[in-house]
Amino acid sequence: MAACLVRAVAGRNAASDADGLNRMASSCLALFVGAGGVAMTVGVPVLFALSGTLSEKADGDPGVLPFMLLMLANVAMGLPLSVFPSVLDGLERYTAKSVVRLAALAARTGGDGVRVTAFGGLFPLAVVYTVVTLIEHAVLALLCRRFLPASAVPIAVRGPGHAQAGEDVQRRCVPGDAGRAGDGAKPGRSSSACCCRQDR
């Protein structure tokens, strides 16, 4: 699905189809949100059923169940969040995406080192992974907002003050076209109308 989104974004961006790009990205985002909800609905009861057995295998670590629940939440969140790097791939913004991914990898590695030294256990590992993942994809979402045309930004990313494409259209009067604008005027009546065209 993400690969299809990459191709669709590239094609619609090349065709300057901002509305189609917006519909595609928003539809994928909504679909993945639903899939993440299904994953949580199915996965949570299964993890509770298996928590006793898995905790025994981890020498009775009480953080096993919270760890598994938080990692399941990461999987569920990762589905809709994967829309943003796919959009950047479709826009051919590979450098920006790679820089963010490398920074997130460095943060995870450093956070894991701190976790092993200061805390230990499984649950702090899941916390570090979750926090870095949320920050990483928040930055990727901001990059999508930065690089996409205004009307193509998915609704979930578009701020309340985000300009819509076409809102900044300037109307410019073209005196030479006044005759065409006044073709329908009655004979003997001068027309001051002018033909205006839109410049984006």
Walk me through what this model shows.
The protein is mostly helical. The chain is built from seven helices and two strands. The protein has helices at residues 2-14, 18-57, 64-81, 83-90, 94-118, 123-147, 178-181, and strands at residues 170-174, 195-199. It has a two-stranded antiparallel ribbon.
Name some characteristics of this structure.
single chain, 200 residues, mainly alpha, 2 domains, two-stranded antiparallel sheet, 2 strands, flat, disordered C terminus
Overall tally of structural domains:
2
Give the strand tally.
Answer: 2
Principal-axis shape equals flat
Q: Compute the CA-based radius of gyration.
A: 26 Å
Uncertain stretches: 160-200
What about the largest sheet?
A: 2 strands, antiparallel
* Nearest-integer average pLDDT: 77
SSE string, helices as H and strands as E: HHHHHHEHE
Topology, element by element:
Blueprint: H1 2-14, H2 18-57, H3 64-81, H4 83-90, H5 94-118, H6 123-147, E1 170-174, H7 178-181, E2 195-199
Antiparallel strand pairs: 1-2
Quick structural overview:
With 200 residues, this protein is mainly alpha-helical. The protein has helices at residues 2-14, 18-57, 64-81, 83-90, 94-118, 123-147, 178-181; strands at 170-174, 195-199.
